[in-house]
């Protein structure tokens, strides 16, 4: 029987990770599945594929489709959605903060706050003040911003990103259930069903 745990691999610059991050907690709770939140960086993953930016910019037609698809999917979920400027956003600080955050509800709330700041409020998530406000609203420790800048956390995020590559993760959001990989917000329900 597959484990009742799902690993959620996400990137703060990822549009579709916004959708998954906002709906995953309630869906997982309803399914009785626990979630391990795994922030990582897509930049090194894309670089290994020979890309220097998101495929939504490399392939213009794909990008046009993605923005319209995001409009539709966000509206269906009752989420406000705006294209961030610039896109993709520089997500390193947010990823380090999520790496440093202790597991639990405050970490999940922080992640949701960052996505809402980026895709709903049109804020720049590379701005330390924006990230600090997201952390404070989530109830993370006051020293979390300093902790996120330590060599230990920087190294941990590098290791997580390398681990993503070893698992064959090529985009975000991705979900792992045991050794089974599911990619994309539209595969979230499939991943949860596999874990049940």
Describe the structure.
- This protein has a 4-stranded mixed β-sheet with strand order 2-1-3-4, sandwiched between helices.
- It is globular.
- The protein is α+β, with helices and mostly antiparallel strands and 196 residues long.
- The mean pLDDT is 94.
- Helix 1 (15-31) packs antiparallel against helix 6 (105-119).
- Helices cover 56% and strands 10% of the residues.
What's a concise summary of this model?
The protein is of the alpha+beta class and 196 residues long.
| Major sheet: arrangement of strands | 2-1-3-4
- Strand content range: 5-15%
Parts with pLDDT < 50 across at least 5 consecutive residues: none
List the secondary-structure elements in sequence, H or E.
EHEHHHHHHHHEEH
Q: Pairing-aware structural class of the strands and helices?
A: alpha+beta
Overall mean pLDDT stands at: 94
The N- and C-terminal alpha carbons lie at a distance of 9 Å
| Overall spatial form | globular
Percentage of residues assigned to helices: 55-70%
Number of distinct beta strands: 4
Number of helices: 10
Rg, Å, rounded? 16 Å
**Based on the structure, what is the oligomeric state of the protein chains?**
single chain
For the biggest sheet, the summary is:
4 strands, mixed
